[in-house]
Structure formats: structure tokens, C-alpha cells
Amino acid sequence: MCGIVGYVGQKQVGSEVVIEGLRALEYRGYDSAGIAFLRSDKTLCLEKAVGRVQNLEGQLEQIDDTKATAAIGHTRWATHGAPTVGNAHPHYNADRSIAVTHNGIIENYLELKQELEAAGYEFVSETDTEVIPHLIEFHTNRSKTFISGLEKAISRLRGAYALAIVTTKTPDTIYAARLSSPLVLGIAKSAAYIASDPMAITSHTKDVVYLNDYELAAVHKDGSYDIRDYKRAQTVNRKAERLEHNHASGELGNYEHFMLKEMHEIPDTIRAATQGRIRPDSNTVKLGGLESVADQLRFIDRIVIVACGTSYYAGLVGEYLIEEIAGIPVEVQLASEFKYRNEPFSRGTALLAISQSGETADTIAALKKVENYGVLRLGVVNAVGSTIARMTDSGVYCHAGPEQAVASTKAFVAQVSVLTLIALHLSGGNSPLYKPILHELEHLPAKAESILAQAKDIEKLAHKYKDARDFLFIGRNYGYPCALEGALKLKEISYIHAEAYAAGEMKHGPLAMIDENFPTLAIATDSPLLEKTISNIQEIKARKGLVLAIATEGNKDIKRLVSDAFYIPGSLEQTQPILIALVEMLFAYYVAIANGHNVDRPRNLAKSVTVE
Ligand code: M6R
After folding, report:
1. pTM, entire model
2. Which of 53, 203, 261, 404 has the most CB atoms less than 10 A away?
């Protein structure tokens, strides 16, 4: 989704720093980009382009003087108004002395716009953002200092925002403010940075200050900064913290696409999520992140998991795991639904948020909803230092590293791996499944490698099914969330209509859709319910439906029944989802490639969904 980068410093490298930062954020999905920089003559130069950051760079090359000690830039994912140059950020006031980039949505923008129009302000875009520079001008003209007027203007905004502001009035300082949208300051010796994602600035500094809601920061060219909480009207003293982890954007290497690269990282992802947490010598699980809440966890009698998209489906796998292994009732809710529901919520309930980015607006809102309930808030998050990681009481990091393709692959695997460890941890070792699962987790990376080694076979299957207009995914028990995730993967990158059903539901409606043009991907791996799934496959076959099955190696019978089968190595039913998901991801990838789609940046989607 939208991305923000800002620079202020002694060196005249603002434009370069901002463009480099915007490039690092490209993977998040966007439709236009723009930059505002302060020239040495203290005038503000604005450039915007539809499409790639590369287009913006091309425009900058045509400009004589791009040297800047202060600059802000933006990649926009359209919400209010089409992706046009006029709607691209930065937005500015009439005399172009103030420029603003904004992530989020200003909910009261119409009201503010009417008020500003009545005061004589004119608008040139369809965006909600454009009210901000005018509002800043209005208030700063009536205030003693720029910052006090800025504070007044920002206090009037409702909704969600991360803002970066540059002005000719204070050329040595740029500004940042946030409410419900991530923003971080990067601090260096003679420069300071602003970014919506640390990935945009870690090549310059690893010393960062995360802003909290209702905070306004002034960052200065000598690397100093001042933060004010404008809700409580008080100064905030917050030291920079060092990012120890590697936020590097990662290179494609020899891979054609990030999605392919990230699928090939899955064996290592399983290792990274489990290693050091499994103690094979003593057969125990150690989750450092949960130690501080060990006492509270003892009294938990229900867990509500909240998440969106793929993370939600990982949560559904987690539900089966935690209930079966630890015996604790679990409910999984879509974060976007949870936040508006009025349901009873006891103190014995823990809320567990799952998120790759740690910045998903709906999941953040779900956590905020229970802020005053006195309940334990846990996180399974990939992005270290992200908003969700910081707002939860405790949690377990996925350690999957940066995931750049919009379609989640290795993050799903890491989430399921971590949820398996959490289930084992919560069981206190009292489940008969405890040791077998611990043991199997160590063998999973090699099994994932063997699937990757057969990617060519999956590619052949993808070519056979690439022209399908519809696809059904079915599975039972642990196979059911896998079916849901498989259908999501196929639709989001190949744009083929795909639906998932619990196999037992076929007779209750979906069977009506089946004919020779409506293929089914059936998860028919080893499980106590396999025979029942086979019956469902028979029913589909009887209606002339083509069936592509994911089965367990050694099951020769299934080959005779279905049109096509792909075999995964034998594994426990509880650990199979990781292997099944890998096959589904590869299948979706090859179908999308065969149909000529941009797998890393599918249409209409963004990597990090920071608006509701
Ligand atoms: O960053 P999050 O895990 O919170 O994101 C949630 C969803 O937006 C995300 O999983 C989305 O569904 C992916 N594109 C799926 O591949």
C-alpha cells in the first residue's frame, strides 16, 4: 500500500535518498509516485508520475538541479480518486510552500474541505489528503510558530494517517505525525529520515524511533528530533533503538520473481521459525516471547485469534492445532468483523493477532478494541518492531525475513510453524502428539525441499489447468484451511475464480456447480478422514468433474480415481498443512505465469493493508 520516505540532512542527497527509499517500498503495491524537495534557493520542487518509481526517476533526470537537503516522497495506492498525476502525492498549498505525503484516510476531509473552501482555498485533486496542506497553511498563518500551527492542524484530522511534511518556512526541519498508521524516524549523525517502513531507510541508519499515535515529530538536519504528544499536550522523550535484525530488501538473485524466491526459502523458513525453540535433547519447546506472560497463560480458558487473509487461514490451522494438542477452545475471527462485533469477552480469553506485516489496519483495530478489557494480547508477527509487535503484551516472531511478493508464501509457513510451537507450549507436554510433532518439525524442511525439487511436475499440472475459469478446493479437518488458503492463492495471482469448501459440505450446495468445466483440487492426504474425502471425490467424478488431488506418497489407489495427483512426502496430519500449502502456492504461481500475470504485484492488491 502507500509508502512514505523523508530526508533532512547536511548533505544535498535528499532526492536520491527518497527515490532509493521508494524503490525499497515498491513491493508493497502502488499506482503512482511523487517527490517534493527543497532546492538550495529554498523553493519547493514537486514531481509526480503515474506508474513505477522508475517513471518518476525519469522525470527527475530532466531537471537541472535536484540537489536537496530536505525531501519527502510517496508511493500511492489509490483510495480517494483515480491513480492520476493530480491525485498522486505530495499535495501542496497554493503558494507551494508546504508539501504533504499521507498514508491512510482522512475521514472528516469533506467537512474540512467545505470549511477551507469557504475560507477561499481551492482544491485541484480528488483526494482526501489535499485538505492537509491547506489546513496547515490556515493554522500556521494564525500561529506564532510553524510547529504550533502544525499541531493545531493535525489535531483536527480524524481517521488514520502517517504524514511527512516539508516546508520552505523551516528548511532545516521536516515533520512527521501518526495516527493508526505506521511511521518511524531514522536517526543518523548529520541527517534524519522518516519512513512508513524501516526497510526504506535501513541502508542509511539502523537507529530508529517508532512514533506512537497522536505524536508529532520535528526532525532536524543535524540528526536531532523533538516529539510531542499532541493529544496530551506533552513532550515525549524517546531514545532511538537499534534495529538488530536485517531489514534489507533482499535481491531477486537468480529467481525470476520474488514469489518463486520466497517459496524456495520455505525450507529455511521452517528452520528459522523452529530452530532454537525446539530442544530435541530434552524434547521441549522454549518460546522466550511467552515467558513473561507464563502466569497469565495458565489461566487462559479460551483464545480468540484475529487476522486477515492468509494470516486468517494460518489462524484456522492454529485453531485445529491448539484445540487438539493443548485442549484450549479457540475461535478464529476475521479482524474486520471482530472489531465491530458485540460479543461477550471474559478475562480468561486471550486475543492472539496474526500478521505478516504487523501493520494491517483491521488487525490493529481488533487489538485496540480489547485495549481496556484487561485481557492478554498476544502476537504472531513477522515484521520485527511493527505496530502489532509493539502493541501486544507478548508474542512469538515468525523470523521469515522480508516477504516482498504480495501473495503470502513463506510467511504462512512460518505462521503455521509458530502456531504449532505455541500449541505444543500450551499443552505443557501433556499431549501424546507432543513428541511426534516435535520430531516431525525437524524433518519438515527436507520434505519441503523434496516438493520444491518436483516443481516441474507442478508446472505441468498448472499448464493443464491454466484455462479453467473456476476452481473448487476441498479438504477436511486440517485440509480445510489448506483448501481455503489454496483458493485464495489461486484467485489473487491468477484471477481465476476459486472457492474452497469443507469436503463434507459438497452435498449441501457446491456440488451443483460441478461439471466437466469446473475442476476441483482435492486435499486427499493421509488422515483418519481420507476415506470420507475419497467418497466426496467419487461424487465429483460422478458429475464429470475433473479432480486434481494432493495425496500422500504411496497412495496408488488415488491415482486410479482422479484425473491427476501430486504426491507429498508422508507427514503427520498436524504438520501436513505446511507441505500442502507449498504445493498449492507452486500451482497458483505456475498457473499465473502461464497466463502472463504479474505474480509479484497482482492487480488491485497491496502487500500491507494499512487502511480499513
Ligand atoms: O500482513 P498481514 O499478514 O496482516 O496481511 C494480511 C493479509 O492482507 C494477507 O495475508 C493477504 O491476504 C495476502 N495477500 C495473501 O496472500
Report:
1. 0.77
2. 53
